[in-house]
Amino acid sequence: MFKAVWKIWVFSIIVECDLCSPSHLEAPPLVKVFYSPPKKWRNIVRAPAEHLINLQIGLKPSSDQFRANYGQRLSVAEVNKFVKPTVQSTTLVEEWLFHHGISKFDYNPSREWIAVSLTIDIIERLLDAKYYIFRHEEDDETLIRTPAWSLPHYLHDHIEVIQPTNSFWWPKAQDKYGGVPQPAWEVEGRLPTHEELEEEDLVERGHLDIPDINDLPSVLTAEDARNRLAIFPLCLRSFYDAAAAKAAYTFETQIVAQGLDQQTPVTPEQSIHFMGFEGALDAETVLGVSYPTPLVAYNVGGRASAFKPSTYTPTNSNESYLEWLQYLLAQPTLPQVITISYADEEQSIPYSYAKRVCELFAQLRARGVLIIAASGDDGVGEGDNCFSNDGSDKPRWLPAFPASCPFVTSVGGTRFLNSELGEIAGWDKRGGFVSGGGFSNYFPRPKYQERAAHSH
């Protein structure tokens, strides 16, 4: 018995010493992740070597205790303890950085993320990668990204993700809005055809009369919430109260990752690029339906309003979504509810990155925060673009992210026909809106959805 244990102990020491010997620092890089750019992103030119990028390095958590405790309310200290990497992981990663002359970097409170600002030429040597400037074919937005990045083999089990590298996640405002239909078929008491609903959407309905607060019922019923105007009297009452209290001038704004804190009207150039439109709509909606619940707006940097085509260089190449989540998790107190109306196709993000972002949402949920995310504006996929991004061009539903993350609550819309006919999935011909949907291609379906989704 003693002899067998002694042999195992010696083997363990040999393995550890092999990793700790200086020779492992010279190990050749092996590709960790390769990800083809989405179809609408075009490779333009090599990125300038002197361009500065805020690199985020995600270390592997030390255990699965966090997942095992999901569903329990945890403190920030408990969450950080569960996701903290092993000493071996942090030691090996630090040695790797030091070996490449990188000595100044920061950890987040849980030490699962390392943040370091480096020029592209240094990052390319560090990751054996080549960065390019990519341009989106529809709106001329640009990103600095690399299709592939590599690590020495001994780090593959210690580093799960590094960004910005090959994530083309570009969260967009979900801003296709519907109108106020007055269907002729409702008078006839019949189910409308698809063509009739399309015609409905394209008809100009004119001014919408909003009832005075004195005209609202004093005792609200379920029927009051089911009306063709999609306006709930309770929401109107809250809206009037918020307006009277000048709530639009009193909510708090927190700046993250060099976000803008502009307190003046948008300029003509900003208006052309719809800068701030979605955020303003979100704030107006939340204030209107939830007053006097306090509102905090997070202004996050990372996406500039416009770029100069002659330079092909974005003003900010940070991974702002990641920085925002890390900022939130570092706060001792958090809001009870967070709403997100920005999204992009799930397949625009490498799985390794989507997984880590989703786990950050899980950390928020463990601390008691409800995250509500827009399901998207394009149904199960936009137009003729419902194809995979892996080179095979297989037909595929394209759910939105972060709505596809199982730790957020995805909210779409329905279109109410009438009390007898019920409702259908929300859509509007005028704006091209179809309430988002589809099943995640990355995350398993929750068990509670199995029965409803089985027929699909």
From TrEMBL:
Q: Which Gene3D superfamilies match?
A: Peptidase S8/S53 domain
Instruction: Write out the GO MF terms.
Output: metal ion binding; serine-type endopeptidase activity; tripeptidyl-peptidase activity
Record-linked SMART domains: Pro-kuma_activ
- State if Cell membrane is listed as a keyword: no
Instruction: Alphabetically list the UniProt keywords.
Output: Calcium, Hydrolase, Metal-binding, Protease, Serine protease, Signal, Zymogen
Which part of the chain is the Peptidase S53 domain? Answer: 204-456
**Span of the signal peptide:** 1-20
Its localization reads: Secreted, Extracellular space
Q: Which InterPro entries does the entry mention?
A: Peptidase_S8/S53_dom_sf, S53_propep, Sedolisin_dom, Tripeptidyl-peptidase_I
UniProt keyword Metal-binding present: yes
Tell me the protein's name: Peptidase S53 domain-containing protein
Q: Which organism is it from?
A: Oidiodendron maius (strain Zn)
Species classification: Eukaryota, Fungi, Dikarya, Ascomycota, Pezizomycotina
